[in-house]
């Protein structure tokens, strides 16, 4: 029996890898396109793109594993049935329930892996991904190019003649307030600094002009600080527990948790549903492996998409138990009493 389980596991591993790698590549391409679209807004190097891709790996694996498991299980059981190997095992006294027990253990391991990815690894990866984007957006907003007109620093338009790292020479900034007041500052030197988490432009040795409809004011200064009030708030990392605890008040976060939970349970829920239609006697029944895979994937992911927008934990659990019982009933009716 140990050798038979090893044989079945070997077949499943081969099928799984054959399916997982192409699916993983396709999902990776989707994420890479999404990441590449960020280059239209912020400057990213190849290393930055690679880092964002690595941070997306938990999500890529999470979306790839359930689909690969269903397809591999359906393919293995369908092929073994078509080649009469399952009938041969039955003739040796090995029932379908015993064969499926090994696959059920695999499904349990897959579900536990998906649960750990979705509720532990993914929140950390998503937060690191968003923090990296926030940092890059902040850098892009302060990437002032010498000689270019129309650049902004906060509410101010800025023109720089020369630049050396974070130091600027011969710069001019302009701002028009809502009250109709115009401000104009020129300086021989400027520096980009950070103070209490807020970016500021420190100007030295310059002149400032304030113009309204009735008067013009001029001032000379040795030092002037211009703060960027429009800067994005710094990203705050949360622990895994506090991240999901926000689901109590954030419906989007709660529905995301429900979606992750149901997707993680898909390997367990699909075992009996797949086996009920792929374990067949090829002399009397047709092989519907492809159709079975498509229908099971469609139904399970359709339910998951519903939980992503509506539902609660109790409904997810009830639906999961119902699907498992339906699968078990179909398996007993179509397979177990014959094999």
Automatic annotation (TrEMBL):
Keyword terms, alphabetized: Cell membrane, Membrane, Transmembrane, Transmembrane helix
Membrane topology per record: Multi-pass membrane protein
Classification via InterPro entries: LptG/LptF_permease (IPR005495)
UniProt keyword Lyase, yes or no: no
Transmembrane intervals: 16-40, 60-78, 99-120, 257-277, 289-307, 313-331
Subcellular location: Cell membrane
Protein's recorded name: LptF/LptG family permease
């Amino acid at each position: 029996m140990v050798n038979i389980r090893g044989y079945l596991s070997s077949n499943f591993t081969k099928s799984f890898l054959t399916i997982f790698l192409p699916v993983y590549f396709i999902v990776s391409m989707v994420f890479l396109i999404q990441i590449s679209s960020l280059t239209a807004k912020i400057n990213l190097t190849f290393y930055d793109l690679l880092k964002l891709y690595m941070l997306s790996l938990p999500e890529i694996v999470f979306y790839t594993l359930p689909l690969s498991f269903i397809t591999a299980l359906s393919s293995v059981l369908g092929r073994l049935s078509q080649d009469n190997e399952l009938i041969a095992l039955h003739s040796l006294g090995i029932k379908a329930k015993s064969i499926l027990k090994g696959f059920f253990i695999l499904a349990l391991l897959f579900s536990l892996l998906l649960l750990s990815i979705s509720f532990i690894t993914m929140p950390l990866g998503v937060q690191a991904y968003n923090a990296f984007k926030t940092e890059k957006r902040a850098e892009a907003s302060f990437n002032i190019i010498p000689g270019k007109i129309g650049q902004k620093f906060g509410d101010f338009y800025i023109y720089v003649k020369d630049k050396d790292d974070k130091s600027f020479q011969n710069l001019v900034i302009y701002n028009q307030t809502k009250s109709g007041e115009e401000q104009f500052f020129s300086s021989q030197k400027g520096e980009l600094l950070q103070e209490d988490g807020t970016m500021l432009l420190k100007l030295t040795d310059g002149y400032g002009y304030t113009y309204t409809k009735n008067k013009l004011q001029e001032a000379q200064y040795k030092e002037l600080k211009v703060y960027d009030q429009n800067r994005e708030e710094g990203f705050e990392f949360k622990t895994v527990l506090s991240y999901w605890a926000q689901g109590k008040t954030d419906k989007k976060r709660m529905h995301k948790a429900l979606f992750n939970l149901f997707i993680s349970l898909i390997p367990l829920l699909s075992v009996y549903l797949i086996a009920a239609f792929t374990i067949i006697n090829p002399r009397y029944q047709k092989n519907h492996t492809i159709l079975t895979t498509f229908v099971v994937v469609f139904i399970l992911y359709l339910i998951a998409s519903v939980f992503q927008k509506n539902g609660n934990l109790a409904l997810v659990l009830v639906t999961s138990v119902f699907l498992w019982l339906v699968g078990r009933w179909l398996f007993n009716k179509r397979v177990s009493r014959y094999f």
